[in-house]
Amino acid sequence: MYTDSKMLKSLFYIQLFSSFLVVVGHFTASVLYFNDPFWVVALNQISRYGTVLLTIATGYLTAYSFDQKQPGFREFFTGKIVYIVIPYLVSGILYHYLLKKGFPHTVGDFANIVLGKTGDHLYFVFMICQYYVVAYFLRNIITKRNILCIIWILLAVQYVYIHYIHQGWLGLTTRHMLPTWIFTLYMGHLIYWYREWILSFLRDNRSILMLVTGVSTAAAIYFVISNKIFVAVHLTFVFATLLSFLVLMVFFLELVDHLHIKFRKGLTYFIFLFHSAFLILFKDVLYQVFGEVSWIFQNTWYSLLYLAAIFICSATLAILLVRLVKRLERLWASMGNRMRKERLQ
Questions:
Q1: DSSP string covering 271-327, please?
Q2: Sign of CA dihedral 114, 116, 118, 119
Q3: How far apart are CA 119 and CA 99, in angstroms?
Q4: For 122, how many CA atoms within 13 A lie in the half-sphere containing its CB?
Q5: I need a labelling partner for 178 at 20 to 30 A (CA). Which of 123, 170, 258, 314 fits?
Q6: Residue 192: CB partners within 8 Å, gap ≥ 6?
Q7: Are 228 and 46 in contact (CB under 8 A)?
Q8: Angle, to 10 degrees, between the axis of helix 86-100 and the axis of helix 267-290?
């Protein structure tokens, strides 16, 4: 039986896999600058699944939070500020320093940090912050009762916004804006609300599961061999990733009792935030020592070792940051308890 506990573990493994794909995407983008063998191009195309998988998972977890925990305004947004916003702003300052070789000091510098323009991947967090605000206030409007109807409206909103409405305000791309992802995010809500039916159906109908697996695999192969680059918000890519998400859910559900990777809140998010810092730092060090880095990217094994080093360093930093945030949470909670006791006295 697929319990909620097992589903959440499966989702954590999907997030870990997705964060690795994001690292692969930025790594292969660097390799393509020097060399473009088929395996690099293929990995670069496949890596685009990472962001969409994370988007669907975010919608799923948000729906779970609203349904199971029913957080109040203060509780919900305090958690987002501690785990999402503050690390996001810190990473923005870090990337400004690494790329500009100095700390931000102008209004424009700080505006770029807030808008997620100092790192190529920070647009995603800027968009997710918009989503959390909208999702909270729509939590009693978009519900399980009407999602099967509203999801088509959200599909239209995403398509129309991308193709006809977006104008690049404040120098922001379509990827920065919530309407570009609104359908993808609420597909996560839909999957959560109908998780038992969807996953049980796939589990009990192996032929259908094999068909879905085959279609998602064929789609991945198509994206690899196609001359067209399908960006993450392209609806064809979104639907293909949706099928892959369901296949991965079932796949990891079958493995959760055998895998013993401890769930760590914020781990995948911190990998996502800070992996590019290691890409920048490693490249700078290699330039200082060797004068150039093309010799690494032109060798397959060196390239793969370089990728492994980037991911391991990112994951190690993420684990340390998770522990730091937990300690800060405990400190904050103890201070709150102490203040309440003093008031009562």
A1: HHHHHHHHHHHHHHHHHHHHS--HHHHTSHHHHHHHHHHHHHHHHHHHHHHHHHHHH
A2: positive
A3: 9
A4: 25
A5: 314
A6: 59, 60, 63, 64, 67
A7: no
A8: 10
Above 80 in pLDDT, residue 333? Answer: no
Torsion (CA) 57, 63, 65, 66 in degrees, nearest 10: 160
Amino acid at 300: T
Asked whether the predicted pLDDT for residue 337 surpasses 80, the reply is no
User: Using CA atoms in the order 124, 250, 236, 233, what is the torsion angle rounded to 10 degrees?
Assistant: 0
Q: What is the pLDDT of residue 279?
A: 92
Window from 4-13, 157-166, 237-246, 252-261 with minimum mean pLDDT: 252-261
User: What percentage of the chain has pLDDT greater than the value 70?
Assistant: 95
Residue 169 CA from chain centroid, whole number: 24
**Type of residue found at 98:** L
Report the SS3 class of residue 40. helix
Long-range residue pairs from 107-116, CB within 8 A, at least 24 positions apart, any chain: 113/89, 114/89, 115/170, 115/171, 115/172, 115/176, 116/88, 116/92, 116/176
Measured between alpha carbons, how far is 313 from 271 in angstroms, rounded to an integer? Answer: 9
- Mean local confidence (pLDDT), 246-258: 90
Residue ranges in the chain assigned as alpha helix (H): 4-34, 38-47, 49-64, 73-80, 86-100, 107-114, 123-137, 147-160, 182-193, 195-204, 206-225, 235-253, 267-290, 294-297, 300-344
CB atoms closer than 10 angstroms to residue 313: 18
CA separation for the pair 315, 160 (Å, rounded)? 38
Q: Is the pLDDT of residue 223 over 80?
A: yes
Per-residue pLDDT reduced to its tens digit, 74-100: 999 988 998 899 999 999 999 999 998
Q: What pLDDT score does 269 carry?
A: 95
Q: Which of 247, 278, 266, 280 is nearest to 325 (CA)?
A: 266
Direct distance between the N- and C-terminal alpha carbons of the chain, in angstroms, rounded to an integer: 51
User: Has this prediction a pTM greater than 0.90?
Assistant: yes
